[in-house]
Amino acid sequence: MFEIKNIDGCAKSGIFKTVHGDIKTPVFMNVGTAAAIKGAVSTVDLKNINTQVELSNTYHLHVRPGDKIVKEMGGLHKFMNWDRPILTDSGGFQVFSLAKLRKIKEEGVYFNSHVDGRKIFMGPEESMQIQSNLASTIAMAFDECPSSMADREYVKKSVDRTTRWLIRCKNEIERLNSLEDTINKNQMLFGINQGAIFDDIRIEHAKEISDLNLDGYAIGGLAVGESHEEMYHVIEKVVPYLPSNKPVYLMGVGTPSNILEAVERGVDFFDCVYPSRNGRHGHVYTNHGKLNLLNKKYELDQRPIEEGCGCEACTHFTRGYIRHLLKAKEMLGMRLCVLHNLYFYNNMMEEIRQAIDNNEFAAYKKRKIDGFNAGE
């Protein structure tokens, strides 16, 4: 399923084969939490900006419209008109970050919906059932995401429970994939490595979950309060203990510089809300750093967001016009900024793959980060 094309240091380029098409790695997955990219960006737009994988969220789609409704509509691909791979996050992170009232037990988690307050239970089996109803390409295992600041004793107990939950996820997805009415009988499962910033807990957990021979492996519980240096350290420690023939996914990360650093350490999959969230607030990424188009200095600026960029915003509109749209609170301004940012990320990943294939990744990374730091 995962064919490695070239290795340049620890960075690697590859092709991950799925029932919904091949994924060229390293890849950035565009985040459409509730089956849509925030910022009025459609799946037609996603194809136009060369998106390979769309990511949606189990928890949010379970709460609204309901995963059973999505199944009745033919599954997530048909529901949102997207014929390329989809990864669904298990909902675990949202349960622990959004639910104000929750109770963790061995069977799963009891909590209140952040939308209407109704009581919900989610455990490994429920998460797999919801994701099976959504019929995503890749399902994520249900885990607990302890704070990176949590004490060692709590983290160890949490990770042990996450391992037990992962085994239950594996058994349940195998059962679901065998059912006649399952839409995607080839749904894959990625396990998640946890352990906060404790090297030994992380490494031991990586060894344990590697033995389960899953389709891929994620590093979770990072970018949640620890420093960038701590995050990079954890990646360096964990990746060597994950299977070299399976993709590694760093969850929820990050900035363009974060991605370059993680690729250098052997990571293949990424996702983050930064491009869309920042775009909705007029913050756009360029090879000369991030710009805030709301600044007055762009009022009469007739340049595109970035010279030479092939996105819809840059090929048709000026910084001054987009700034006007943002100031006037016209949705088009938000949409153009989100489109640009997603294009920038997707294009950067293409450049990364080419650099690895040409054994030039170190030079490419330095050139890119130097540009980010130099500014306009």
TrEMBL record:
<keyword id="KW-0479">Metal-binding</keyword>
<dbReference type="InterPro" id="IPR004803">
    <property type="entry name" value="TGT"/>
</dbReference>
<feature type="active site" description="Proton acceptor">
    <location>
        <position position="89"/>
    </location>
</feature>
<dbReference type="InterPro" id="IPR050076">
    <property type="entry name" value="ArchSynthase1/Queuine_TRR"/>
</dbReference>
<keyword id="KW-0671">Queuosine biosynthesis</keyword>
<feature type="region of interest" description="RNA binding">
    <location>
        <begin position="252"/>
        <end position="258"/>
    </location>
</feature>
<dbReference type="Pfam" id="PF01702">
    <property type="entry name" value="TGT"/>
</dbReference>
<keyword id="KW-0808">Transferase</keyword>
<keyword id="KW-0328">Glycosyltransferase</keyword>
<feature type="binding site">
    <location>
        <position position="309"/>
    </location>
    <ligand>
        <name>Zn(2+)</name>
    </ligand>
</feature>
<feature type="binding site">
    <location>
        <begin position="89"/>
        <end position="93"/>
    </location>
    <ligand>
        <name>substrate</name>
    </ligand>
</feature>
<keyword id="KW-0862">Zinc</keyword>
<dbReference type="GO" id="GO:0046872">
    <property type="term" value="F:metal ion binding"/>
</dbReference>
<dbReference type="InterPro" id="IPR036511">
    <property type="entry name" value="TGT-like_sf"/>
</dbReference>
<comment type="function">
    <text>Catalyzes the base-exchange of a guanine (G) residue with the queuine precursor 7-aminomethyl-7-deazaguanine (PreQ1) at position 34 (anticodon wobble position) in tRNAs with GU(N) anticodons (tRNA-Asp, -Asn, -His and -Tyr). Catalysis occurs through a double-displacement mechanism. The nucleophile active site attacks the C1' of nucleotide 34 to detach the guanine base from the RNA, forming a covalent enzyme-RNA intermediate. The proton acceptor active site deprotonates the incoming PreQ1, allowing a nucleophilic attack on the C1' of the ribose to form the product.</text>
</comment>
<comment type="subunit">
    <text>Homodimer. Within each dimer, one monomer is responsible for RNA recognition and catalysis, while the other monomer binds to the replacement base PreQ1.</text>
</comment>
<dbReference type="GO" id="GO:0005829">
    <property type="term" value="C:cytosol"/>
</dbReference>
<feature type="binding site">
    <location>
        <position position="143"/>
    </location>
    <ligand>
        <name>substrate</name>
    </ligand>
</feature>
<feature type="binding site">
    <location>
        <position position="221"/>
    </location>
    <ligand>
        <name>substrate</name>
    </ligand>
</feature>
<dbReference type="InterPro" id="IPR002616">
    <property type="entry name" value="tRNA_ribo_trans-like"/>
</dbReference>
<comment type="pathway">
    <text>tRNA modification; tRNA-queuosine biosynthesis.</text>
</comment>
<feature type="binding site">
    <location>
        <position position="340"/>
    </location>
    <ligand>
        <name>Zn(2+)</name>
    </ligand>
</feature>
<comment type="similarity">
    <text>Belongs to the queuine tRNA-ribosyltransferase family.</text>
</comment>
<dbReference type="GO" id="GO:0008616">
    <property type="term" value="P:tRNA queuosine(34) biosynthetic process"/>
</dbReference>
<feature type="binding site">
    <location>
        <position position="314"/>
    </location>
    <ligand>
        <name>Zn(2+)</name>
    </ligand>
</feature>
<dbReference type="GO" id="GO:0008479">
    <property type="term" value="F:tRNA-guanosine(34) queuine transglycosylase activity"/>
</dbReference>
<feature type="active site" description="Nucleophile">
    <location>
        <position position="271"/>
    </location>
</feature>
<feature type="binding site">
    <location>
        <position position="194"/>
    </location>
    <ligand>
        <name>substrate</name>
    </ligand>
</feature>
<protein>
    <recommendedName>
        <fullName>Queuine tRNA-ribosyltransferase</fullName>
        <ecNumber>2.4.2.29</ecNumber>
    </recommendedName>
</protein>
<feature type="binding site">
    <location>
        <position position="311"/>
    </location>
    <ligand>
        <name>Zn(2+)</name>
    </ligand>
</feature>
<keyword id="KW-0819">tRNA processing</keyword>
<feature type="domain" description="tRNA-guanine(15) transglycosylase-like">
    <location>
        <begin position="11"/>
        <end position="370"/>
    </location>
</feature>
